[in-house]
Design a protein that fits this description.
3-stranded antiparallel β-sheet, 5-stranded parallel β-sheet, 8 strands
Amino acid sequence: MINIAIDGPAGAGKSTISRKAAASLGYIYIDTGALYRTVGLVALRAGVEPSDPQAVAALLTDDLSVELRFVQGEQRMFLNGEDVSAAIRTPEASLAASAVSAVPAVRAYLFDLQKKLAHENNCIMDGRDIGTVVLPDAKVKIFLTASPEARARRRYDELIEKGMDVKFEDVLSDMIRRDYNDSHRAIAPLKPAQDAILLDTSGNTLEQSVALVIETIRANL
C-alpha cells in the first residue's frame, strides 16, 4: 500500500488539503486529528479534565466505541454509534484534543486503529506524528505549516462560516497555546520527520496549497 504522511500544526489546512489531494490521487483520506478530537469530546462530556492522564485513561473502557467510517466517500466520526463529526469541530474540542493527545493511554488506544487503516488502504493520513511515529515508513512525508496569524485567520473564517460567535484574538490565542502544547508534550511531540518535505502555505490560496501538495507527492513517489 502507498501511504502518504502529512503532519503540521493546528490550522495549517492539513485536513482540507489532504482530503482534496487524496480525492485527486484516488487515495483514502484519514484525518487522525478527528480521532483525538473524539476522545477529547468523550472527556468533555464526562466532565473530566482532558489533561488528567488517569481520569482520561479510565474513560477508555471496552464499552467505548470510537469509529471512523467512510460515508459516501467522506470520513465521519462516530462515538458510541452517534455521528459526532460536527460536535468535534468546536474550539473546546480542539483544545481537549490537544490535551488528550499527550496522554499515553489515548495514543496507545488509537495507534492500532491508525496502523490498520493505513495497512488496508492507499491513503493520505494527516496529524501531528504520522511521519515520526505512526507511519515512519510512509512513501512521502510532508510537514505542512503556515504562520500562526495565517492559520488563526483560516480557522476564524471557518468558524464564522459555521455560525459560531468567536473573536479572532481568542482563536489566535488558542492556536498559539495549542502549538506550544503539541510541540512540548513528552509523548510524540509535534515536529517534522527528518526526511519530511517542509511546505509553508502562509500566502497561498487553498487551491494553490492543494496543487503544491499534489505536485510534491507525485514528484516524490
